[in-house]
Amino acid sequence: MAEGGGKAAAAAGTSGGRSGGQQIDAFTAQEILEERRVMCLEAWNQYALLGLSDGTLLLASPRPADGSAGSEAGGYDSGSEAGGRGGGSGTPAGPQSAQRGQDGQPKQGQPAQQEAQQAQQQQPQWAAVQALRGFGKGGVKQLVVARERSMLLCLADDGVNAFVLAGMRLKGQAGRTRGASMFAWHGGSDTLAVAVKRRVILFKYDGLEFVEQREASLPDAPACMALAGGTLYVGLTKRDYVAIDVGTGALSQLFTTKGTAPCMAVVSPSEVLLGRDSSAVLYGGDGRASKRGASGSSGGKGATGGRRRGGALAWSAPPAALALSAPYAVAFSEGVAEARLVEPLDSADLWQRLPLPLPAAAASLAVAPSAAPDGSLFVASRESGAVVQLRPVSFVRQAAQLLQLGEHEEALAMAALAPPEQAAERRQLEDLIHLAFGQRLFREGAYEEAMLHFGMSSLAGPLELLRLFPSLAPPKLLAAAAADQAEEEQAGGGGPGAQQGAAEAAAAGEQAASVEDGATSELQGEAFVAAVQQLMPYLLSHRSRLAAAAASPAQQREQQQEQQLEEGRRHAGPRQQTPAAAAAAIEAAQDPGPSPTTRAVLAQRRLQGSATATLLDTALLLALLALPDSGALLRFVQRPNCVDLEAGEAALRSLGRYSELVALYQTKGRHAAALELLHALSQGPEQLPAAPQGASAELRGLPGVWAAVKYVCHMPEGERDLSLISTHAKWILRADPDAGLEMFSNMQPPLPPSAALPMLTSYAPHLAGPYLEGALASGAAPPEQYEQELARIYLERLVGGTSGTSGTSGTAGGAAAAAAAAEGACGEGEGAAGEAPPESLPEYGKLRQLILGSRFLDYEALLRVMPQHRLLEVRAALLERLGRHTEALRILVHRLRSAPQAEAYCDRVYQRRQLALRERHRADLAAALRRQRQQREAAAAATAGGAPAAALYGCSSASTARSLQFEGSTAGFLATPAAGSGAAATKLQPVLSSSSSEGGADIYLLLVQVLLEEEDASGGFRPVQRAPDHAVWGEVACLLSRKRDAIPPLRALGLLPGEVALPLPFLEGALWGAGERRRSAAVARSLRRAEHVGLLGQLADAQQRSILLTPERNCSICYKRVGTAALVAFPSGLLAHYSCWRRASSGTGQQGAAGAAVNGGSAAREWR
Amino acid sequence: MASRKRTLLKVIILGDSGVGKTSLMNQYVNKKFSSQYKATIGADFLTKEVQVDDRLVTMQIWDTAGQERFQSLGVAFYRGADCCVLVYDVNSAKSFDNLENWRDEFLIQASPSDPDNFPFVVLGNKVDVEGGRARQVSEKKAKQWCASKGGIPHFDTSAKEDLNVDDAFQTIARNALKNEAEEELYIPETVDVNAAAAPRRPQSSCC
Ligand SMILES: Nc1nc2c(ncn2[C@@H]2O[C@H](COP(=O)(O)OP(=O)(O)OP(=O)(O)O)[C@@H](O)[C@H]2O)c(=O)[nH]1
Ligand SMILES: [Mg+2]
Fold this sequence. Notes:
The complex is a heterodimer of chains A (about 1150) and B (about 210). Chain A is of the alpha+beta class and about 1150 residues long. In chain A, about 50% of the residues lie in helices and about 15% in strands. In chain A, the strands form nine sheets. In chain A, strands 1-26-25-24-23 form a five-stranded mixed β-sheet. The longest helix of chain A is centred in the C-terminal third of the chain and has 40 residues, at about 900-940. The N terminus and C terminus of chain A are likely disordered. Chain B has a single domain, classed as 3-Layer(aba) Sandwich (Rossmann fold). Chain B has six helices and six strands. Chain B has helices at about 20-30, 75-80, 95, 100-110, 140-150, 165-185, and strands at about 10-15, 45-50, 55-65, 85-90, 120-125, 155. A six-stranded mixed β-sheet of chain B has the order 2-3-1-4-5-6, with helices on both faces. The longest helix of chain B has 22 residues, at about 165-185. Residues about 185-205 of chain B have low confidence and may be disordered. Classes of the chains: A alpha+beta (about 1150), B alpha/beta (about 210). The interface between A and B is large, with 48 and 38 residues. The complex binds guanosine-5'-triphosphate and magnesium ion. Magnesium ion binds next to helix 1 of chain B.
């Protein structure tokens, strides 16, 4: 009978097609007992409470399931007439097959194992475990569990009694309720309403007893009643509903139903569902139809919270009774139970019809007023005695059904109702729902929502996302990433349930693929852009995850574990495995160092990361290309990235985004390609296949050159390729020499001049000089190596520049003309200025400056390559540095005819000389002092008298040295190859020694000599014999007068030709100068002496001390009186005879005593 | 036309580097805290279910990089946010001063339909440091700023000691939902879906 019912349910369920809404397996029905005496039902904990007509209270509960189907174990209370084997043995298979039938095609791979699980748990056998006879006098008419009070309220002939749960002891009685027909209880307000005939008595339970509050009379006999908030709803037998205000007893009419009977069910403490015709309406605690809003009135289904259609649920037939098991309300009518969502979301109105052996009349129907903790509803037919349990299908399973129905939102809401123990299953299912929902939304064009859902699904990895955007994912990369992922999954699947996991993943993948098939045609145009815009953050988040994983191995490990954990959760299925996996993960997390296995895993992860990262970054590049250019793409490729070069290059090239391509080449180290592209962009953009776009459109001409320069400058040192630089230096220098120079000067770290110079000299010789100048100044080129090079370059420019062989400033005049100009210049001064003589080039001055200032030049070599009769100033400078002053001065005086230059020349030489002398002098002085100190130390053991003498000697020796050297220096003839001081001095030294006639102040004399020379016919020079002409003489005289301090007058006079009139100005100056010097020397000497004497006096004052000598004082050595003998005084104040002290100190020879004695001695002398 | 209740909320966390954005999110979602600093690269999100009144909603919380060099393409994340969380470090006046910039940046990039009423929540983090003695930004000053920006809710938080974190995110979720409600009001029921000015939030089709 029950078995038949189950099958029938399945059949009817499939056939019942109703407009609107989706059919779902929300409940399974099982006839659990057969009890003909049943009058009422209630659910309490795991029990079904049955009130019997003979006054017995029967407690039935499912027997613990023991694998062996338990059909033979009939050992329960023989007193009860429980549904025996018939019902028990048949049922397990019944609903099971019914589900399969209803599913139609078993399309989802996932619930298979769940079903098996459920089959085990499902359909336990029920048995009456306890029978309390005589529980209710004259039959148990109504049972209600007051859960807040742990009481069972029971209506019997003697009225409403309250019993303690679970003891079933009588606890209280509501007075004047004898003969009552029904009651209602409201837990929140402890209100009891009892209907006695046409009256309703309202009680308040105060914990001890029921206190009567008020009474209200009804227009008719009640058929059903329920309390919600402060309102008692009563359905009258005449099919009217009235509402009674509990506080006032005021009655208000509601409506009349056309159904067979009024019926109602409590939805929440403040809401009831009232049957109206073939529908049901929600009423609130205020006696009015409920406007379901955001008020706290949820029937335990907060997540859905959707709006109801007109606030009514529609059944297929007028219900005889209603019951509630969130989120469903169930209506019972003849032969059928129909479940519907109390609060459907708009898109889904779920329903289920279950055929049950139920009578038509409400009076012969007993429905438990509340659902069991697991959501089960109990209903019984008083006619047949069949007690049926409507057991809810787990929410996860329902959600799975909804997923298949395409009711994703409802599915998510349903999954959210799953109890915490099913969190793992729920998660797993939600991953699927989110994925499918996302795909649906995506198809519908709701990209943002779609992406949100993808983001919520761990199944929607970068691959899954990118499969929706074929144009962003080059197939090759997608395949590589997919292969990597598959490999990883296999490797990761070493744990328990791995195969299962893999199978499920495959199933999920298949499902995903099948869903995708519907949407293979990719979006276009604006829709595509909009979708890509939404996709972007998720691609980036996947990228962030990869980057973070790669950044820290520790985190990588953690992720791995998390993944394992999740996989365990997702695939292991049975609940008990999750904690195990978690424990393993925690254990692994505590493991301080990576074990070899984890390290292998790490390596693998990194590998995997690379393929996925390549896919991701390439997709990002393509996505950014699809979006309006905001500069983001350029920034993206400028940073390290994993873009696939081939794919990225093709895409960027075809769109003319060359700047980005250059940046991409740069990050990939493809410098040759980058520079080639920059070359093309700058020099011939029209030849590129696609017109340059974005930033690259502005690179034509100079900007491109500078971009190339910048590129080369930023090339990492390790990746520099000289031949590449050389190739590009050529066009860069040609296009913009300044830029080229900038390039060579600004490379960081600098390019070695050995590499840069050849390029410059071959492509832009005129820049070699400026480059080297910069390199020398910045220290990039060592001067000892490159000053010579620079001088050579200058020289080449000067010589070659005028000969017109190269460069920018080359004049038309040939070599001959240049030479002629030079010759002319030497003959007639600055005669040929118009022809851009080398002297007008900047290099001329620079070379001269270099020669004069350098410390590393090889002057001889330079002189050898100098042209004979040109660049005279430079030649003079060279001769100067070589110490060949006569030649130099001859050039200046006779060729260039520049007396000021000649004088400046002499000044330089003189000053350099003086400087050298001063330095040498300082060195000598230091040496002398050092010597003196050594001597003093050597003479440390010497006697007291020796020391001052030694000091005196040292002092005098120093002064002697000074005067000697001074003489030596002024004489200048002495070759003094003494300790050199400074590089300049050393350079000059050999010169001094080689030409004994030149040096020091003599340079002026030399100048005088040269001035007074004249050229003879052979080109040589000889001193003038006759009086020079007036101009020359005046010049010489002025010179002598100006330099009188530096020139020894007598030697100067000797140089002047004999017949010359007395060189008055010179002599006058010399004499005055000498007189002046003597005077000031005398003054200085007097001042010094005065100072010295004063110092001596101060010293005496400072050292002075007094000793009191009385006739009584004794010699501290011989203890005789000191008397008038010579004495010494010790610093301690003791006295001694001089003779005693001499004896004692020579005897002991102690240094300290001697010192004391000397002091004492001097003091004694003072005193005397 | 069907109106649709959002069950997914997008929340974005902004603020200077090192103020504790990632830590706050981790504390809220995973109940974990690490004193080791690992700069966020790019951006990533975590999800968390949260009950607001009788609604169970899922928050998608986007954590962004405070360091500029890691903010590649930051704007992409801002779009479609339902609430923006601005975080500063109470021990750093600069991080507080920068809130203004973060807020402006967000409003420019996300361009919400009603910028004046877009929900922000400000969190002053790290109140635990040195027992509050290192504090540079007083709660009063912060609240003044929040008031001047149209009454932004402000919380003193500590990701380390899990102080106020749940409360703050509860408010964040609530305000994000409020944003939705207000937005719904702005969309007339008779709106023409085919018009170019379609509402920003795509509506589900009614099938
Ligand atoms: N004492 C204390 N330290 C905190 C707190 N919150 C974060 N920190 C620490 O501050 C540092 C930075 O925290 P993060 O959360 O990484 O900072 P962030 O804002 O995400 O930084 P970016 O990712 O660079 O933008 C870490 O070392 C944290 O441990 C807190 O409430 N108290
Ligand atoms: Mg961070």
